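Why show two proteins at once? Because comparison is the fastest way to build intuition. When a single record is shown, students tend to memorize it. When two are placed side by side, the eye starts asking what differs. So, the first record is below.
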Amino acid sequence: MSRIRRLVYVHLIPPVTERGFSSLSVVTAPLDFTEIQISRLPTVVILGRPNVGKSALFNRLIRRREALVYNTPDDHVTRDIREGLAKLADLRFRVLDSAGLEAEATSASILHRTASITAHVLAKSHFALFLTDARAGLHPLDLQVGKWLRKHAPQIKPIVAMNKSESLFDATGSLASAANEMCRLGFGDPIAISAETGLGMHDLYMSLKPLLEDYMLRVFTEGARENSHNEVEDSSDLDVDKSKLPLQLAIVGRPNVGKSTLLNALLQEDRVLVGPEAGLTRDSIRTQFEFQGRTIYLVDTAGWLQRTKQEKGAASLSIMQSRKSLLRAHIIALVLDAEEIINARRSMKHAEVVIARRAVEEGRGLVVIVNKMDLLRGKHKSSSYEKVMEVVPQEIQTIIPQVTGIPVVFISALEGRGRTTVLNQVIDTYEKWCSRLPTARLNRWLQKVMSRHSWKDQAAQPKVKYFTQVKARPPTFVAFVRGKTQLSDTDIRFLTKSLKEDFDLGGIPIRIMQRSVTKKDASGSGNSKNSHSVCRVVERTVSDKRSIVDE
């Protein structure tokens, strides 16, 4: 595939006349998909009946194992739409992994709801890959999917791909027989591929290449004037503000607390499957959207449960994927159920305490979201509503004393209330998490704060030479202490609390390290390699690590 290159492409340049952009001139130039903005790339959705290898092909195209792949003939692993950036040789396009389609699914069933979401996404897509199983041959469900596709997307002619074809490449002619059978779908000649081994990716490349190039040609034709007009503005934005970099937000919590409903409310569209059934979400769904000029990558995770030895299959993979999503995120949105808080008479159960403490231990920002507040409204529940608003922030601070000022937002995701409040709070926490303080300002602060601290033994008071921030995300500081006397754990806690109060850094973990310097180092003489300085890291982030050990 690396030897396949484009020969001639069309690039549109609008010439400037006295009255502006009057016409378009056409010149030949290479078209590099890697230089096109992701938002402008074409979208290709992978469709097919259940268990034909759609998620495996999705992972092959994005070159990562993100979608769950598990052989479950009696169950459907994929239930939501997963989006990724496909990299097929020099082609780039957005690819969507969809749930298996069954035309005979009963109304209001999970399969019927997933089909509705797929139809909604298909209407916004540009191309489709119709995946079938070459080893099983033409299945009656394949014909039903073809009929469903003609009904919901008559403007799209899909590319039919026979997956699992690696065993049919022999001299018996079985591959040709399977291809002839797939022609009955009425979408043209199929291509033989194997998502597991990568066989047939060259043929897939050759099938997609002219379609994607024609699409980009139309995009350039329609937007040439506007893009050329904005070239001056785009070229001025060379300096990137780190606080405006894409934000990674993970929505975590126990099953059936409304995580997927919250994601749909934030996106303002039915993006993922929701319902009264617990455990609907299996994949960690990652999607992107814009809010107030900021790009936010949003991840909806499966319900957080303790992984047991009896837990196997797709459920076990979902638990592992949820934990990986927590480690990749910048900000963790921990979702609680307001009704369960009233019934259980406590704000957080063990699993939720584990999530919060692990987020703090990994240095992530934490925002607590109390969902389903609409269930506590009414004449007979007004006292419960007020009680939750008052008690939850206090209990959370008691349970997680390592981080003060954890923000708590009360919403109703089902009604769409609190969307703007949640996003503003997340962005505020993220900016604190990325904040950097000048060394001069920190040392002026240090002189004031050390003078008001009550030392037990004034003679043994540590002499802090200076205080500086060495990194952000989360904010990490180093206190250079003169002599052998070290700051105690009480002193570290005092400095941490003072930092959060004086610089408004509540709700995020702060790490303070201390380094001992000798008089020789303090005077600036001598070689640093020969100095006897001692570095000791002191982190007050987790009080009980035994509670987060996997069982």
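Second record. Ask yourself what differs from the first in the token line.
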Amino acid sequence: MERVESSQHSERELYALTTPNEEAEQASNESKQGGWITFPFITGTLFGLSLVAGGWASNLIVYLITEYNVKSITATKIFNVVQGSNCLFPVAGAIIADSFLGSFPVVAFFAFVSLLGTIMFTITATIQSLRPPGCAVGSHTCETPSNLQYGVLYMTLLLASLGLGGTRFTIATLGAGQFDKPNDQATFFNWYFFALYFANAISFSAVVYIQDNVSWGLGFGVCVIANAISLVLFVLGKRFYRQVKPNGSPFTSIARVMVAAIRKRKILKTVGRQDYYFGFTEASKSEDNLPTKSFRSWKLCTVEEVEDLKTLIRIIPLWSTGIFLGISIGIFSSLVTLQALTMDRHLGPHFKIPAGTFLLFNILATIISILIIDRFLLPTWRNLARRTLTPLQRIGIGHIINIFGFVGAALIESKRLHVARTHHLMGQPSLVVSMSALWLVVPLGIVGLGEGFHFPGSVGLYYQEFPKSLKSTSTAMVSLLLAIGLYLSPAITTLVDRTTGWLPNNINDGRVDNVYWMLAVIGVVNFGYFLICAKMFKYQNVEDHNGPSGLAP
């Protein structure tokens, strides 16, 4: 014991003797880095990469059906798996950034991977031999893609998904790390979501229009140019960025705590401050790192490491309530595209809205709701309640609104099916139901409004409550739950189809309305589960409620 204390004392002395000059130099360097000068570089990069991601992902179902002769329900399953990958890969990127490389190298590398993916999309769209021969939609004689064609397609999707995943949330952490004040971080998150959704809005409208009405090759070519500009812009801003060096994998220390807790489970717990190991840094011995009473562990690891694991255990139940939201959004967004393909999409006699563009209304609703929440709802709430709207309250409101969105979707689909049956369109997938596709804007807008509450609130909660060593991972937690939900949605779609027959390839012969009613009922149950988890949850960083909640306070 004396040897350990002597060793710790010597190490602290060495630390004290060798670090002041280094700390002064580091502080001098950091004073010249970070701040609002980095904002145009980071936000511009995010805007360009988001436009690229929306450009190839938003119209993917239509691309698979019209260019690869893929059956409609199969196309939705592929779409949901790809979307799940788009949400899962950001978690891997965040872990790599937190643990090994830092944010800048990860974003730069995966932006280049994204560029390769968009180039591959352009090649598949321009070289006919990489696609099966053209065929009328709904025909039973269409030639399916060859193994080589599928292989090239899947490689293209993999590169594009990796590129999106390694940049989207890692760049959010890099951007927030350029600021010291919580208010500045909150403002950055506000602009982060605005740039993300605004870029997607352009993709879902302009880029999709080019793909549907000019050529797929030109549409993907626009994405290549945007991707290249974003990569160059990001690299040009390197000298201004404040780059935080990773301290090794935080998951190693979490695993160490779990092992220690298991091995020492029979040892009597201690309560004295002198019995805890705080590490060598002054920060690790601050009052913020005093051991809490919940989930008591034991020695062997620092108190900070133990408390980090406790934080994760406390927040996992709340986080899990968002998994169903990912499932429902995955099913909803893919089915809406199929509905739009069967409905009248004309605006006037000459303009026809592309089916993939209808998800734009969901994005616009989210943008508008974020602005309303930021500029009207939050200030009004503060004036009336004398306190800010907490992240949990925002998440709960989002759950409720989404339930109403699925109810609206079910009612509109019931009306569409009634019109189809009245005009005897059953078994005729190539014919259009004489009902305006603009009716789909109603549920898309409601769900978008719910997302404006739910997702910024979730990001704010995780960024606020997660340990400092897991900041990149915290911003990617929403992406992880969406990934799980989107990966599960094809399985649930298959299960529903096999057990009920509600989802045939020709949805005019199915009961998509019953699928929406099912989502609404499960949403109510999930909201009850959320209320239980929220009741049991206790904020650890109460003072930060006005901080980075995804909106400027």
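One difference worth noting in the second protein: Residues 1-20, 22-31, 280-285, 543-553 have pLDDT under 50 and may be disordered.
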